[in-house]
């Protein structure tokens, strides 16, 4: 029987994926209404934008902190992309949970250097980077589309919410994958291709 933590991991990963899908579908149903985008004031416009409502066209309102903007008349693609980071994070979390499940089982069996573990950790690193770096790029594209549609591209620029944490975690996981790969015995190196064909790992 699988340990409770392994089952819980798969359950939470599935919930994350379902939440991301539902969140995007909910946004798509709001196409034509406001879409929330993250922006930065363009050079030379920050002082002007401190006055709420200055030069704001009909259907656009500015929040108090100046970064989130709600643009009316959104398209389906804008709504989907504006929430695409949540969807991508959920899907990557589900895929990562499945990989972690297999990794944990080998660790609990006392086989941390089992054939295929290094590749699984490498895939985990890729998932972290895709979710953490590629995910925030989707709302940025939505912001760029909305700014061009509302003729605000000269007033704002699309914001990209970059964090160095996901790339750092990806590098750590990559180093761990190299360590696991280097820790395999010659016998494991010889049997790895045969095990990959028979187990599908």
UniProtKB/TrEMBL annotation:
Keywords: Membrane, Transmembrane, Transmembrane helix
Transmembrane region(s): 12-35, 86-104, 124-147, 159-180
Protein name from the UniProt record: DUF2975 domain-containing protein
Organism: Sphaerisporangium rufum
Lineage per the UniProt record: Bacteria, Bacillati, Actinomycetota, Actinomycetes, Streptosporangiales
């Amino acid at each position: 029987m699988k340990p409770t933590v392994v089952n819980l991991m798969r359950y939470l990963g599935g919930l994350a994926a379902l939440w991301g899908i539902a969140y995007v579908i909910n946004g798509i149903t709001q196409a034509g209404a406001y879409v929330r985008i993250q922006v930065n004031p363009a050079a030379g416009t920050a002082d002007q934008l401190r006055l709420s409502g200055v030069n704001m066209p009909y259907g656009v309102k500015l929040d108090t902190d100046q970064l989130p903007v709600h643009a009316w008349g959104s398209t389906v693609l804008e709504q989907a992309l504006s929430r695409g980071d949540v969807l991508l994070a959920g899907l990557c979390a589900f895929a990562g949970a499945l990989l972690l499940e297999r990794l944990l089982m080998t660790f609990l069996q006392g086989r941390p250097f089992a054939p295929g573990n290094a590749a699984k950790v490498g895939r985990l690193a890729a998932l972290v980077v895709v979710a953490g770096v590629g995910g925030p790029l989707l709302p940025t594209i939505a912001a760029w589309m909305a700014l061009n549609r509302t003729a605000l591209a000269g007033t704002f620029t699309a914001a990209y919410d970059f964090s160095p944490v996901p790339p750092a975690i990806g590098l750590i996981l990559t180093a761990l994958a190299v360590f696991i790969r280097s820790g395999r015995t010659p016998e494991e190196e010889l049997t790895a291709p045969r095990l990959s064909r028979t187990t599908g790992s």
